Every structure is written in structure tokens, then in C-alpha cells.
Predict the structure.
Amino acid sequence: MKWQPFVAWPWVLVAAVVGLAIVGLAARLGSGRRRVRLAHALRQGAIVAVAALIVLQPVVPGGAAERQEATADIFILVDISPSMVAEDWGEGQPRLDGVKADLEALATTYAGSRFCLITFEATGRLAMPLTADAGALLAAADTLVPVVTDYASGSSIDSGLTVLKEALQRASKAQPDRTRLVYYLGDGEQTRNTEPKSFGQVADLVNGGAVWGYGTQAGGPMLERTLSNREDGYIADPANPEAKALSHIDEDNLRAIAEDLGVEYHLRQAGSGIGDAVWQGEIQWQDSDQAEEGTGRSLAWILAWLLLVLTAWEVAVHLGALESLRAAFSASRTAKKATGGAS
């Protein structure tokens, strides 16, 4: 949970007025044992109350805080074909689990950037247009599911290319100076009997990125996903209905995409970070022209001065009492010596 400052500035004014009233009241009480005790209690109560208000961080709404943002647009293509639930990721988890973990890591690595998410199987779809809200990317990642098996009609590794090209062209036209990175996440399996188009047609719009592969050469079985969103066993092998169909990663296809884009290819492994797999180029940062949401001008300094006055007064009173006690003790000793000398 994010800490929110106490946005109730009238209470600060109330506290200041009450504190000053206490100071004045305690001063008017003057001498006398009961008056001294009451003044002491008022000062200590005021110290506790003012300190509590400082802890609440009172602010005046409407303040501004400087914020920096990365001048980068991150375009992410994610394969959601049935093969992406093949259970050869880590300890037999679906490949899509690895994709989701890597998307979360990307959001952290490129915090302050803008993100665009494109999903593809038989066709490509703009799942999330460019946004600086990394939380939106994480929410979209949580909802990633493969296409319903009943509707699967074969997938192609270039299905998201058209959507990607359009998104890159829009971004380039709107803000040509921003860095544009493309991350392609998939297993490279081509199940359509067509030759995939080259990603080289968007290479001049891309500054960097990477292609990440998921899966193994040994392959993994795939759970069916029906219209009722219920898992009804594994997809059967067309050549042998009694056996489970296995999906295998095609690294040759993934390397070809990386070469077309002019980026590196990395085989992803469960439990490995993305530090060495992300683009190693430099991204520029700039000051944002928007105020940080939820900021304000702090009023705690007013209370801090009041607390300092009350504390100093309390210390002075105690020092005065200590000095009075020392003087009384000294006078008592002098009197005893005088009495003893007289006798």
C-alpha cells in the first residue's frame, strides 16, 4: 500500500492556534503549585499532539514534484497460440507462465517508458496501445490466455507483424525522437503452411529490442482450452489420437526474426533474470511536464517550529526547576553549617 500524506491543512492551522493558545495560557497561569502542574501538563500534551500531526505529513493539495520519464516506447509481441501452454517451462509449467514473469520484469526494467502490447496467433491484435502506465501492462499480462482450442486454425509467427508496423509508424510520426524497442516473445512454431513475412520491413523503425524464445527441443504436451474455459485433457496427436501432441520450440524461426529486426535472440529459462537478455543500448531520460500525482506542499515545517518552541520551553522549565533545587540545596547546606558552627 502506498503511503498517502494527510491532506487536511485546516487541521494544521488549528494545531498551530491551539499550540499558541496553550503557550499563552501556560504563561498566564503564573506561579503556584497547581498552576505549575497544569502548565506542565498543557505543554507536554501540546508536544505530543504536534508530534503526532507531523507524523501524518500534512500537505496543501496542488503541489508539484519533478518526475523523470524514459524517452522510449516498448512494443511487445506475445504469442498466445495453443502451443504457448505446452508444459515444458521450468517444472512442467506452461510456457505462458514464463512470458508473464518476463513481462513483469520488463515493466520494472523500463519503468517510466511507454508500453504497447500486441498478441497474436492466427491474427494479430492490439491488446494495449502505447501507455506510460506500467500497471496496465501488468494487468494485461495477468489476463493473457491462449486462443480457444476449438477456434485454433493454425498460427503463424508473423501474425502480429501488420499490427506492429502500424503501431510503430504511428509512434514514429507522432514523436520521431523517441527510442523504439521491440520485444518478440514466442516459441517460433509455424503451424500454417505459408511462408512467414520478414520482420525486416519494420527494421528501419526499430532502434533495438530482443527476441525471446520459450520451450524446449524435447517439447511439451498442451492442455485443451474449450469455450467453457474448462480444461478437458490434452490435445491429441493427429497422427496418433491415443497420444498427446507435443509442441517444440523452433529456434531457427526465432533467430530469423531477430536477424530481420537487427536484434539479439535469447532462449529464456525458468528462474533466470532478464538482465543479460534485454537490449543493452542507452535510453535517454527527460523531465516530465506533468506533476507527480498525489503531491503537495508540506506544512510539517510549521508544526516543526511549534514543536521546537514547546520543547525548548519545556527544557527551560526543567532547567529552571533544577537550578532552583540546586540553589535550595546549597542554601540548606549553608544554613546547616551556620547552625552547627553556632552550637
